[in-house]
Amino acid sequence: MHVFVLTGAGISAESGIDTFREPNGSGLWSRFDPMKLATPEAFQQRPAEVQAFYNWRRQRLIETRPNPAHLALARFGQELHEVGGRLTLVTQNIDDLHERAGSSDVLHMHGELLKARCLVCQGVSECRGEISPHSRCVACGQIGALRPHVVWFGETPLFLDLIAEWLPTADLFVAIGTSGAVYPAAGFVAEAHRHGVKTCEINLDPADNASLFDQSIYGLASHCVPAWCERTLASLKAPPSG
Ligand code: OAD
Asked: Is 206 in the pocket of ligand 1 (CB under 6 A)?
């Protein structure tokens, strides 16, 4: 069985990471204007403000820990592999909580907060501190040319070729903790349907594209994801009936 999981900000919410869109207005994009902080134009016009926003988020990320949903998915990947299955884990999140929980080969389609990219040589390097005008690229030595290795609005998400290749080969597509508001990720459920892949949503509230899913499970990720992983593995290990 090949399970293709897409995660969004909701899976990291209980670790203390802000989501972007919340019905009560507490999401990051209710407090900050994404057009002023998460576009290449914003970075060109106000680099210090944009770097400060990502420096602040990087610092906060370092203080967090994976929650039971990240841990359950990591175990699920290992156990699925042991019974001959495969997990593809794609995340829109720029945090490293899946990796810290033990997942490997995570496709970060919106980049990674703990990495910096050099505008001169395009080299990507680890980055756990602040990016400042004095930061030096470890690859080419250039000073003041680093940006967060994240995908901004108007830029092309990463790994789209692999995603296009692997999604149609899945038996099940599961979207966890994502509002279905941002494309191309919001279009994966329709793409899965086109290829006859079963679909399931695990979320706190119905996503914008909730009606497209075959199955919906609503509740906290820390509760629903471990329970779903356990059920799915049990059904795979169960002896065939009859
Ligand atoms: P959103 O903030 O848009 O949606 C988060 C979803 O998680 C919502 O549907 C919530 O109901 C749900 N949620 C919140 N807490 C939860 C919990 N404890 N358990 C389960 N679900 C919970 O985040 P994304 O869909 O990931 O892109 O946002 C997609 C992209 O929009 C982000 O990657 C980011 C943002 O703009 C860029 O910055 C380019």
From this structure: no
> Which ligand 1 atom is the nearest neighbour of the CA of 207?
9
Across the beta sheet with 111-118, the strand order is 124-126, 111-118, 146-150
Class level of CATH domain 1-17+67-110+156-242: alpha beta
Q: Which of 203, 213, 225 to mutate to test the pocket of ligand 1 (most atoms within 8 A of CB)?
A: 203
For the chain, the domains span 1-17+67-110+156-242, 18-63+111-150
Residues 6+ apart with CB under 8 A from 181: 21, 207, 208
pTM metric for this prediction: 0.96
CATH H-level superfamily of 18-63+111-150: SIR2/SIRT2 'Small Domain' (3.30.1600.10)
207-241 per-position pLDDT tens digit: 999 999 999 999 999 999 999 999 999 998 877 66
Å from CA of 85 to ligand 1 middle: 28
